Amino acid sequence: MLKRIVYGVSGAVIIGLGLFSFYAWNPSIDPITPPVKSDYSPQVIEQGKVLAAAGYCSTCHTPTGGTPYAGNYEMHTEFGTIYSSNITPDVETGIGSWSEEAFNRAMRSGVSRDGHHLLPAFPFEHFNKMTDEDIRAIYAYIMTSVPAVNQVKKENGIPFPLNIRWLQAGWKLLFADSDAFKVNENKSEQWNRGAYLAEGIAHCGACHTPRNALGGEKYDQMYQGADIDGWIAPSLTATSTSPIPWRAQDFYEYLTTGNSPYHGSAAGPMAPVMHKGLSALPEQDVRAISLYFADHSGANESDDPAANANLQAAIKEQHTQADLRIDEGARLYATACQACHYSSEELVKGRPLLTLGSATHLEQPTNLVNVILDGVRSDQGISGVVMPGFRDALSDQDISAIAAYLRQSAGQEAWPELQQKVTEIRNQPRFEQ
Ligand code: HEC
Ligand code: HEC
Ligand code: HEC
Description:
Cytochrome Bc1 Complex, Chain D, domain 2; about 40% helix; single chain; two-stranded antiparallel sheet; 3 domains; mainly alpha; binds heme C; about 425 residues
């Protein structure tokens, strides 16, 4: 891995040095006096507020307990620590002196007002898919409605030579999709609306698309699942390991209620996406996103999951499990989990059937272990519904036994080196948002 990064970096250095030193340069755009509310119609500002929510700007630009949009949210990447910028309209430390032109350039090409390149931790290659009108609305909202806060951005902890800003020009040329959003004439208007939102402002692929050694999204494996912030963002395509295929209505239910009874809950980094982001969008927009992803997953909309053999098997399994397999994992499961995770003959929402859930079927135990350690807070998954965490109550050995037992009950191959992975997951930085 390290070798690949080093080779890749050297490649980027050569490209950056040799061919693109001119290309890499961007002019500074003159500062302006910030616009005021009366410069825009209330509808435009409201539209900007909705879009800013759908783009999770505040999630990435606000640390836990920090001031909204004032930056210094810490992002851990394999290249080092990155801090987000202050994007409040503060003239000195924020974007108060930015013209709409400067903001538009940053959103489209990841270039700051003074001309320096921004790191792709800021998902500009998705925001680039937006129309000028939508970018203008976000600008209008932030500049006129977010309170200005004076706070200096912390220095990124990115080692040399990756910290050389203009090398980003090489990265962008190699990996960033700089094309505008293209309407697919073969698909419906609703599908195209879903694609526009998912590929653009909601940037689902920033987490769900795997990345290459230099952090570029692999566009030929769009939405096929990736690691993000100590979690797995599962595949949203036909490569999903879920026993029940995702139909449009399953996506819609998951994205609006935080849980699909056939798949699981939106915890970890998916929780703010759903609760703070998609919840701001009008219903028809979330329907459009769901339709778009159902097309990727290839599920048959008229299939009834209740009649699916995998579902029947999982329900049957839970009635036989306790007597059949008296092992440590089964015993711990019966005492620590089963009281809440039961289902009768039918699935009950809010009582996830763990042998069916995505967390048990993914290639790695990451999400299952994260949930066992830290539970599901009331502002994650289904609103107001809590699952307690077992970080202090269960040892790594206990958690590993439960996970192994669930995996076996789900009819999946054992996860290798499970207990060691539980220890690693316990010790990784916790996702806080
Ligand atoms: C996934 C996290 C993430 C999301 C989501 C995100 N940003 Fe950022 N943003 C960053 C990071 C990190 C930086 C700083 C990058 C750097 O240091 O090069 C940044 C920088 C910026 C900058 C440049 C500021 C400057 O002074 O150069 C602007 C403007 C910006 N973001 C606007 C937005 C807006 C508007 C949204 C929502 C539509 C948004 N960001 C969503 C992470 C994010
Ligand atoms: C910040 C990263 C991030 C972004 C952005 C993101 N997701 Fe997720 N997503 C995740 C993670 C992590 C999980 C796993 C959550 C869990 O299991 O509790 C997940 C889970 C899901 C699941 C459940 C999959 C399964 O098999 O259980 C769906 C569906 C989903 N995301 C859809 C979307 C859509 C649609 C978007 C864009 C509107 C999106 N996600 C944007 C990180 C993200
Ligand atoms: C007090 C009740 C309760 C107990 C005990 C409990 N859970 Fe949960 N669990 C829940 C609820 C409720 C949810 C759904 C939470 C939501 O969506 O808000 C859930 C969700 C989950 C999920 C799905 C999360 C996702 O990301 O899809 C997993 C996995 C899980 N629990 C595993 C376990 C395991 C393993 C145990 C035993 C160690 C356990 N739970 C014990 C109530 C409980």
